[in-house]
Amino acid sequence: MKVSLDLKISSSPKWVEAVMADFPSFIQDHANCEKKASAMAMSLVSKYPDRPKIIPPLIDTAIEELEHFRDVVAWMDKLGVPLPSDMQQDLYVNQLIALVRKGRDEGLIDRLCLGSIIECRGAERFRLVEEALTEPGIKRFYKILWASEAKHGNMFVELALEYFAPEIVFSRLEELLGAEAQILEGLEIKSALH
Asked: Which of 34, 53, 58, 158 could in theory staple to 69 by disulfide, Cβ–Cβ 3.0 to 4.6 A?
């Protein structure tokens, strides 16, 4: 059974241009996203302790995302980019979270599906950044990151399938992938991960 997602739309080449034109803003936002990804994984552990099959993989993901945060901060230090004290809201993630349904099971399915979609979009965008970068060290760093994000995207689908029937999971994924494409198309292009 295929657990990797096919995003409905690709990121615009204009997005890559915006990132390359203001890489410091991108890497600051990237650091913030890694920190939030770690917190999101742990919030699922806290909210769903009665779903033991999801807990170890989510703890591992939280740790890995925190390690990514540490590594991004190290790159920021090398590049002379400060860690900001305040970041703008992530409209992309906020609009996706607004789609989470009420109800314990529905909420879990939606959070896991959205986790997969966000990680898959991150993988796509980190790959685009890696392809556009020229400095070998940071280029290699983003190549490692996009592979990791793709793996996390698959993992969230696998976790949903631990507790819910494939037809339910894949039907909801299809709905949310369509919504994600509309959200992405409606966002201002800027030097940020989303």
From this structure: 34
Question: What pTM did the predictor assign?
Answer: 0.94
Task: Give the Cα separation of 88 and 161 in Å (integer).
Answer: 34
Separation of alpha carbons 161 and 158, rounded Å: 5
The pLDDT tens digits of the residues spanning 39-80 come to 999 999 999 999 999 999 999 999 999 999 999 999 999 999
**CB neighbourhood size of 112 (10 A):** 28
Let me know how long the chain is.
194
Number of H helices, E strands in the chain: 7, 0
The residue among 1 and 37 whose pLDDT is bigger is 37
- Give CA–CA dist 190/173, Å, rounded: 26
Question: Where do the domains of the chain lie, and which CATH numbers do they carry?
Answer: 13-186 (1.20.1260.10)
Task: Give the span between the Cα atoms of 174 and 80, in whole angstroms.
Answer: 41
